[in-house]
Amino acid sequence: MKFSHGNEFASVRPLLELLQTDLPIIQAPMAGTSSPALAAAVSNAGALGSLGVGAVDAAGARKMIADFRARSARSLHVNVFCHQPPRSDAAREAAWIERLRPEFTRLGIEPPRQLTEIYQSFVADKNMLDLFLEAKPKVVSFHFGVPPETTVRALREAGITTVASATSLNEAQIAERTGIQAIVAQGYEAGGHRGLFDPNADDDRLGTVALTRLLVKKLNVPVIAAGGIMDGAGIAAMLQLGASGVQMGTAFIGCPESAADAGFRAALASDAAFHTTMTRVISGRPARCLANKFTALGRDVDAAVIPEYPIAYDAGKALNAAGKSRNEAGYGAQWAGQGAPMARSLPAAELIGTLVDEI
After folding, report:
1. How far is the C-alpha of 35 from the C-alpha of 88, rounded, in Å?
2. DSSP code of residue 280
3. Where do the domains of the chain lie, and which CATH numbers do they carry?
4. Nearest 5°: CA angle at 284, between 283 and 290?
5. Which residue positions in the chain have pLDDT lower than 70?
6. What's the rounded Cα separation, in Å, for the pair 144 and 184?
7. From its phi and psi, is residue 190 left (phi > 0), alpha (psi between -120 and 50) or beta?
8. How far is it, in rounded angstroms, from Cα 264 to Cα 320?
9. Is the model's pTM score more than 0.90?
10. pLDDT tens string 72-128
11. How far apart are CA 199 and CA 171, in angstroms?
12. d(Cα 74, Cα 44) in Å, to the nearest integer?
């Protein structure tokens, strides 16, 4: 499937060359929801399939990449987290466990005795870098910041395209100066974790339209729009604004190839899709989620009492596991953007074809 709008949207050409794809559409990596099957189906349809490997170790990432390559010989995009390694605070973490204890008790489950850093940041994980240099996925992208310039240079010298998320012009310019080759303009509408380099800094909460247009005017690298884009009309609008492509996550959650569980799929098809909310109680970082029992817990919580990311996520995952053991899906990290009510449960290849027809 080829993109037939080259003359109308000339800005897409540099990105298509960087990604080695036929279409300027990227399926967002979505750690925990994307899967090798989903990524392969998207890539085989001419777009860019993606895997979120930030929450697994190098061995887990190696298996996911191998699973993808057993299904597709096309371009693969892998994404990692570049947050600052957390500082443990035993008192704050113990208090957080006690704050959540009533929810565990209601489910008949004991909360964890202590919380731990459940996965490493890419900036501290040499094994993950070594894996990428060996496996050579076509694209490696970064969330929550960018790694040192030496790391970016090593990836580029291995023939790997580098991409980073930015929520502001300042973040985008830092990434560009580091040698990043394309920027994802993550609007406030987007589902999942905000890509803020510093989660405690002021967030201007720029929407996708304003941020995309700003970065297109100020940067010298391709800009990929992300946040609230659910159909071909949305894609065309972003390309008209000068974006070189789009990244779409929530649009792919309902695909049968995604790893979303039954509770997540049911919530996406419910009234909760109309009420997404930004919360940090689940993981310790701001993230847009479908309204559920867990997000309700965070309405009046001071960010200062929440353990650092991803230590807080240890409690969040434990509470979700406790809920699922009692057939209660309302404690899941059901990350989704403001376009959630427009999600379609189509096979990935069919969804890509539909998007192209709509453009």
Report:
1. 31
2. S
3. 12-85+120-258+344-358 (3.20.20.70), 87-118+277-335 (no CATH)
4. 50
5. 1-8
6. 12
7. beta
8. 12
9. yes
10. 999 999 999 999 999 999 999 999 999 999 999 999 999 999 999 999 999 999 999
11. 12
12. 7
